[in-house]
């Protein structure tokens, strides 16, 4: 599996401008997008989500797990390892995430203008 890129998301993320959220917070859609290709460790998620504090990322992951969108798996042998992956429910959100990304790209200037006025 290919590593997540640090520049996966724009510095100015449209998720902060959207009037709606997927999941419990503005970072949930980005976490779901990061898990699209398969299970990831916390440290892997931190690469593209460097603007998110570890505490907030942990809260997002716990809330997404609680809501049934992701699964947390802990392995203890040979070393402790925790991974996060999308459930079928979470995978079902990917299409909506893509639709929202397309919509926000299409209306980016309007969203910025509205926030500035």
Explained architecture:
The chain is an alpha+beta fold. Helix content is 45%, strand content 12%. The protein is built from 5 helices and 3 strands; from the N terminus they run H-E-H-H-E-E-H-H. Strands 1-3-2 form a 3-stranded antiparallel beta sheet. A hairpin with a 5-residue loop joins strand 2 (70-75) and strand 3 (81-86). The chain is elongated and about 55 Å long. The protein starts with 27 loop residues before the first helix and ends with a helix.
Write the layout of secondary structure elements.
Elements: H1 28-34, E1 40-41, H2 42-46, H3 54-66, E2 70-75, E3 81-86, H4 88-106, H5 108-116
Antiparallel strand pairs: 1-3, 2-3
- Unreliable residue runs: none
**Radius of gyration, taken over Cα atoms and rounded to an integer in Å:** 15 Å
Largest sheet: 3 strands, antiparallel
Strand order of the largest sheet: 1-3-2
So, CATH architecture? Orthogonal Bundle
Portion of residues in beta strands equals 5-15%
CATH structural fold name:
Arc Repressor Mutant, subunit A
Overall 3D form? elongated
Specify the CATH homologous superfamily: Winged helix-like DNA-binding domain superfamily/Winged helix DNA-binding domain
Number of helices: 5
Protein name: HTH hxlR-type domain-containing protein
InterPro entries: HTH_HxlR, WH-like_DNA-bd_sf, WH_DNA-bd_sf
Organism: Kribbella yunnanensis
Domain HTH hxlR-type: 13-112
């Amino acid at each position: 599996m290919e590593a997540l890129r640090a520049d996966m998301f724009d510095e100015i993320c449209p998720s902060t401008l959207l009037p709606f959220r997927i999941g419990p917070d503005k970072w949930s859609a980005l976490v779901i997008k990061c898990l699209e290709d398969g299970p990831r460790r916390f440290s892997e998620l931190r690469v593209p989500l460097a603007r998110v504090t570890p505490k907030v990322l942990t809260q997002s992951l716990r809330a997404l797990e609680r809501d049934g969108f992701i699964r947390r798996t802990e392995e203890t042998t040979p070393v402790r390892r925790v991974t996060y992956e999308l459930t079928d429910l979470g995978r079902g959100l990917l299409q909506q995430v893509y639709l929202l990304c397309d919509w926000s790209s299409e209306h980016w200037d309007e969203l910025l203008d509205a926030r500035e006025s």
